[in-house]
Amino acid sequence: MGNWFSTPYPFRKKVVVSRNPTGQKINEKYMIFHDQVLGRGSYGVVRECIDLSSGEKLACKTMSKMELESKDRVEHVRREIAILRHLKNHPNIVSIKDVCEDDNELHIVTELLKGKTLDYILHRVPLPEKEASTIIRTLVEIIQVLHNNGVIHRDIKFENFMFGGSTNNIATLKVIDFGISVFYNPGDTCKLSSCTRHYVAPEVLMGNNQDPEVDIWAAGVILYILLCGIAPFRKGHPWVQRRGGRSWYHQLYMKGFYAHVKKWLRGCLNLLMKTVCAPSGIRS
């Protein structure tokens, strides 16, 4: 006998993805604008919607249960919902509002962010030092909030930070997309099956256990891009081929790759380079 995942739809056993759904159908509480697509992901589509009781504009991520074709995917979605609820109401983290579920679909309703994703700034890199420092300070503060609340994001990148307002004020920047995030306790380790390659830490490439330092590594890559205008690790780069950082680390120093940076910031970068090239256990 196969499980419900292998049984032809619609004769599958009903599965409840959310451990604490509202019990209401999405159309009873929200009007979804099906032509207002805000984004698409591997698990679903994000559309604008409106709360019928308050008139508030929100975002709704809709996932077909046919797309959640394995128990692992169901657990990923459950964990994403749990993390969003755990981090609810922080000004720099996208806020979950509701979860609705029926036999065929799951809907995660969040606040509507009206600004751009942080990758809009890539057409202007390299940035002036002051602007780059403001951005990276905000990102590091957000990552610290996640870690202090027992969450590793595991997919820190430009595209996963979004401005809350249309003016793209740095104070409104929020972290989004907790699809591969995990809870952790000090001393815990975990394996990561997927992430964005430009930002991947060496322990991920080598298939080792990972801890919160993978987020710190990714923040270092973002800082590098902001200041240098290119990603430090690209297709065919010795880092990826050799799975070691010494050659990259050495080239930065020997070639004076960031000679334009002022002395105080160069000192910060020296520390950063030593940090990201260190073993994960001392990357803090």
UniProtKB/TrEMBL annotation:
<dbReference type="InterPro" id="IPR011009">
    <property type="entry name" value="Kinase-like_dom_sf"/>
</dbReference>
<keyword id="KW-0067">ATP-binding</keyword>
<keyword id="KW-0547">Nucleotide-binding</keyword>
<dbReference type="InterPro" id="IPR017441">
    <property type="entry name" value="Protein_kinase_ATP_BS"/>
</dbReference>
<comment type="function">
    <text>CIPK serine-threonine protein kinases interact with CBL proteins. Binding of a CBL protein to the regulatory NAF domain of CIPK protein lead to the activation of the kinase in a calcium-dependent manner.</text>
</comment>
<dbReference type="InterPro" id="IPR000719">
    <property type="entry name" value="Prot_kinase_dom"/>
</dbReference>
<feature type="transmembrane region" description="Helical">
    <location>
        <begin position="216"/>
        <end position="233"/>
    </location>
</feature>
<dbReference type="GO" id="GO:0004674">
    <property type="term" value="F:protein serine/threonine kinase activity"/>
</dbReference>
<keyword id="KW-0808">Transferase</keyword>
<dbReference type="InterPro" id="IPR008271">
    <property type="entry name" value="Ser/Thr_kinase_AS"/>
</dbReference>
<dbReference type="InterPro" id="IPR050205">
    <property type="entry name" value="CDPK_Ser/Thr_kinases"/>
</dbReference>
<protein>
    <recommendedName>
        <fullName>Protein kinase domain-containing protein</fullName>
    </recommendedName>
</protein>
<dbReference type="GO" id="GO:0005524">
    <property type="term" value="F:ATP binding"/>
</dbReference>
<comment type="similarity">
    <text>Belongs to the protein kinase superfamily. CAMK Ser/Thr protein kinase family. SNF1 subfamily.</text>
</comment>
<feature type="binding site">
    <location>
        <position position="61"/>
    </location>
    <ligand>
        <name>ATP</name>
    </ligand>
</feature>
<keyword id="KW-1133">Transmembrane helix</keyword>
<feature type="domain" description="Protein kinase">
    <location>
        <begin position="32"/>
        <end position="284"/>
    </location>
</feature>
<keyword id="KW-0812">Transmembrane</keyword>
<keyword id="KW-0418">Kinase</keyword>
<keyword id="KW-0723">Serine/threonine-protein kinase</keyword>
<keyword id="KW-0472">Membrane</keyword>
<comment type="similarity">
    <text>Belongs to the protein kinase superfamily. CAMK Ser/Thr protein kinase family. CaMK subfamily.</text>
</comment>
<dbReference type="Pfam" id="PF00069">
    <property type="entry name" value="Pkinase"/>
</dbReference>
